[in-house]
Design goal:
Length: 295
């Protein structure tokens, strides 16, 4: 079998360590094998080791200068992932090219309250956000639904996006006209889905959408959550399932695969092919149309 097939087999068994071992062994014997080097970089991303991924991407670029453009986009996505981590762990704000929408401003307030373990303030911000959000109609994979909402209360109204310019963005559902996902073809697509986003203003860009939730802070396992909710759970890192947590203020957080509630159906980020949104105004969301490509 080829290395790609061997990696697919190992990952199908949730054996991330074995997959990394296979890629590392190939790189050790063939240090200028760019494909193997990039497979190893992608597996490092899945494992949450962004600095190691950057090291391998640099070495790949040195070995194959003609592939610099594609490798450069990968490294920009790593930069955006670092910015994402900085938001969820330190409170460094996401990028809002024209400023946060009213909904995103409330989500920022909500998450700051969670970071401060102020459950009352977090609950108040979520109530205001849900009230302002109302319902967000969606057409997912050709099926109409009256509302789309993320099942994680930390960001119920928007997607996270990584731009080719290295920025970590929030895009309100109301700002998006269509989100078209590409089929998965490489290991990294399990955790960062490739997509083409078209905004309501007509601008469009290629982005990566994180399919795996960031680790919640200060949460406890919900009563119906499986016992496999440990941060190091490889199955969750690979998006094999979703565990839910109780957060301060009665909010719900999640680990593992991102899920949306589309009408009365739970739609996972791995299942979705296209999400279409008719124009809707949510109390000032129109003031934050973000051109992901220019970011």
């Amino acid at each position: 079998m080829t290395l790609a097939q061997d990696l697919k087999s190992a990952l199908s068994q949730d054996d991330l360590a074995a997959a990394r071992g296979l890629a590392a062994a190939r790189v050790k014997t063939h240090p200028r094998d760019v494909e193997a080097r990039m497979f190893l970089a992608e597996l490092c991303v899945i494992a949450g080791e962004l600095d190691r991924a950057e090291t391998h991407a640099k070495l790949a670029a040195t070995a194959a200068p003609d592939a610099a453009v594609g490798l450069g986009v990968f490294r920009q996505h790593l930069r955006a992932l670092h910015a994402r981590d900085a938001w969820w762990t330190q409170g460094a704000l996401p990028t809002f090219p024209t400023g946060p929408s009213a909904l995103s401003a409330l989500a920022l307030r909500l998450n700051i309250a969670l970071r401060d373990e102020d459950g009352a303030a977090a609950a108040k911000a979520l109530a205001a956000l849900d009230d302002l959000r109302g319902e967000q109609p969606v057409v997912y994979d050709g099926t109409e639904a009256g509302d789309l909402r993320d099942l994680d209360d930390r960001l119920p109204h928007a997607i996270e996006a990584l731009s080719a310019g290295g920025h970590y963005l929030w895009l309100d559902f109301a700002q998006i006209s269509e989100l078209a996902f590409h089929p998965a073809s490489r290991p990294i697509d399990m955790v960062l889905r490739r997509a083409r986003v078209t905004l309501q203003d007509g601008s469009a860009a290629d982005i990566r959408v994180p399919a795996i939730y960031p680790e919640p802070r200060g949460g406890t396992s919900a009563p119906n959550a499986p016992a496999s909710a440990a941060p190091a759970d490889i199955a969750l890192r690979l998006g094999r399932g979703t565990d839910f947590l109780d957060l301060p203020g009665g909010l719900t957080g999640a680990r593992g695969l991102r899920c949306w509630l589309a009408g009365d159906r739970v739609l996972t980020c791995h299942e979705a092919q296209t999400l279409g949104f008719p124009p809707v105004t949510h109390g000032g969301a129109e003031g934050a149309m973000q051109t992901a490509g220019s970011a």
